[in-house]
Amino acid sequence: MKPNMNAARRSFLLKSAAVSGGLLVGFRLPGIAVAAEEAKKGVEVTHWIMIHPDDSIAIRIARSELGQGSFTGLAQLVVEELEADWSKVRPEYADVNEHIKRKRVWGGMSTGGSRSIRDSQEYLRKAGAAAREMLVAAAAQKLEVPAAELSVANGVITHKASGRSVRFGQVAATAAEFEVPKEPKLKDPKDWKVIGKSLPRFDIPEKVNGQQIYAADMRLPGMLHASVAQVPVFGGKLKGYDEAKIKGMRGVKKVVAADDWVAVVADNWWRAHQALKAMPIEWDGGEHTKVSSESIKQFLRTGIEAGDVPVARKDGDVDAAMKSAAKVVEAEFYAPYLNHSTMEPQTATALAKDDSIEVWVGTQNGEATIAAASEAAGVPLENVIVHKMHAGGGFGRRGPHQEYTRQAVKIAQSMPGTPVRLQWSREEDMQQGRYRPVAMVKLRGGLDQNGNWIAWNVRQADQSILSTVDLGPNIRVKDGVDPIGTRVFSDNPYAVPNFRNEYAMRNTHVPPGFWRAVAHTHNPFFRECFIDELAHAAGKDPYQFRRPLLEKKTKDLGVLDAVAKAAAWEKPVKAGLQRGIAVVDGYGSFTAAVVELAVKDKAIQVERVIVAIDSGYVVNPDAVKAQIESGIIWALSALMHEEITIKDGRVEQTNFADYPVLRLAHTPKVESLIVPSGGFWGGIGEPPMIAVIPAACNAIFAATGKRPRSLPLKHEGFSYA
Amino acid sequence: MATFNVNAKEVKVDVEPEMPLLWVLRDELGLTGTKYGCGISVCGACTVHIDGEPVRSCVLPNSAAVGKKITTIEGLSQDSSHPIQKAWVQLQVPQCGYCQSGMIMAAAALLKSKKQPTDADIEEAMTNICRCGTYVRVRDAIHAAAKLAA
Ligand code: FES
Ligand code: FES
């Protein structure tokens, strides 16, 4: 192994680490990259791995911890190959500013699309393996033996023949001088010891004693607090406000206004918010003040009724097959806007200095945050320090949309030298979301005289998220089709020979966003309920109807069979209950669900939810189990309760009182089936929920004989018992 | 100046009497473990104990807490040794964690009033919102904590 230029790289790192430690030395640094003092003591073996003389190891994490366990799972990938002592490992955020300066050395930082593990598993395992090889080479030099005679376990490198050994901390400095091997040898999955183990999560101890510092908890010397009001009608403008009315209110320091928002800054958030509420504000709603949920529905209907629209996928000849069908089934479905409603409302703290800006924020994408802060501040990326904090819920809300970061930056710039913490009120968070878009579909399916499914036409009338956000050249609106919006249809796994997916884009002024599982929230409801309907029309059992159609899709079939087996589908369901089944793949994983429930006078008692997931490999089974539980709650909440409605161009809901979400009392029994078939890496954050809503609706049909066609179910008079 | 007894310490704060206790704790005393989630007594993120009873501090004027014993998540135990905290770690309950201070304070109060709570007791007492959907584990962990405490 050859020495390289690592020394220069390290001294650069130390300098930039010292900058990012900046003002904060002496304060408790919540989940923040390399504190200056510590950085001096440690050695960066590679940019992922920092080893200290006392053998403690910092693993850099580029993705965000949102409670899904990425800090632990990503560290497991590195440690598996590094052969470090797990008890000495500590994950820390890769510094975003350094990331920029070092030409994006840590790869993607986006934490969405259930991609933290699946997109980074390879380079993280290689990072561990490469560092291990470097450490071994250094040990070989120190012990003056061939590297091949050394073995590594638990952070100790041993020369068996002579009985001598060295610890990682003793050779890290030498190891760091070697060139990083590009193609280190990775273990065979059957030899994994750390991957596949339910190791306790790193972030949990601080989450049971109030010590976890979220962006909302940021406290800095001299810091002020701000509350903001944004124009309630999306696209409107701020017309005016009467600052005089709040003059002299206790603690109020300043009013800061922009094109479409105004904020009050005070010495206490409650005082800032009281003053904001007391201040008369006038808005110019612009051209959308007449839009309502009703008018949006009518607009979607034009997409259902339009003649030719763009086509996302076409197999065979649907029209001819439909004509020849013995039976045609037709159904329309609708799904509303939904809000993320993260428990921590959107929050960012910013501090402006001469030509630099420092922000503290819970983000799902450090790069999106640094870009937003840099743009809002008008300073180059290099002059922006982003402190990533563990977020109080993400679910897609804190990714590309960074309005709160921009606002905090603008406010801070109006008071240089004073850190300002902007926290949205719950009301603001509810009314200024980036909502799961509305969708309407019309589905037509043709069966031949033997009940075989021969034709399927899907007409979507859909609001496109990608029309408002650029996620890069690989995924953009093309020929009128939003490739995210058509998912679950355009990648339909069922073997139906004649299939057409038509897509009528219908964009409204309501800002859409990536709500956990995105199009995999409503499209599975449409598709899997419709297939249930086709099965009934064909006189077949809905599980048996699906099986031959998935014959070639062995992984979909695998999870479908797994839930059917767990539910003892071949036997009648327990007396008093009904059940439904669904299977959906997405985000690289395969999942299926069976829901068992009873319906009495429109009161639904969900007894048991079984979810199977095949994500190929599993890094931390308990974390997967937690995501299954989480996904089920998320799905049952949307199924019954959640809806954002529009009136006079603005959101009607204001808080959890009129946007209720599921609570503990309505939590069913959960059965998680983790059935990894190996050979691939699927996502976990979103997939577990995607088959639950359709399985529940199919059970409701079994119980009531009526098909739910529109969510949430509360509008059909249903409630949870 | 109002005098409060917070986590067994006397503190003096100069605040207007109507400011909800939550903001005295968070913004005046720096006890940020107690969270703001809704501000209207619906989510439970701001739950603290007042004279041992669970109270949603976001709607409680601080003047109503003067002279009473206030306990926040920071004061529940010195070292995360409360049976609820232990069970929470054992069962890996928190996800994002933002709701968990309130959740834990509500659960600790339940365990105090009912040594062996049933599922029905838990359903009735635990009305806190957890957007991450940790309810399955919250339920299990309360039962586990009851065993630990027994
Ligand atoms: S913040 Fe007090 S109940 Fe929600
Ligand atoms: S753990 Fe995230 S809101 Fe409960």
Summarize the structure.
Chain A has 721 residues and is an alpha+beta fold. Chain B starts with a strand and ends with a helix. The longest helix of chain B has 15 residues, at 135-149.
| Amount of beta strand of chain A | 15-25%
Helix content of chain B: 25-40%
Total number of helices of chain A: 17
CATH superfamily assignment of the largest domain in chain A? Aldehyde oxidase/xanthine dehydrogenase, molybdopterin binding domain
* Coarse shape of chain B: globular
Query: Could you tell me the radius of gyration of chain B in angstroms?
Result: 15 Å
What CATH architecture of the largest domain in chain A would you give? 2-Layer Sandwich
List each distinct ligand once.
Answer: FE2/S2 (inorganic) cluster
Largest interface: A-B, 60 and 59 residues
Unreliably modeled segments of chain B: none
CATH structural architecture of the largest domain in chain B = Roll
Query: What is the count of DSSP helices of chain B, taking H or I runs of 4+ residues?
Result: 6
CATH fold-level name of the largest domain in chain B: Ubiquitin-like (UB roll)
Assign the CATH topology of the largest domain in chain A.
Aldehyde Oxidoreductase, domain 4
Shape assignment of chain A: globular
Largest sheet of chain A: 7 strands, mixed
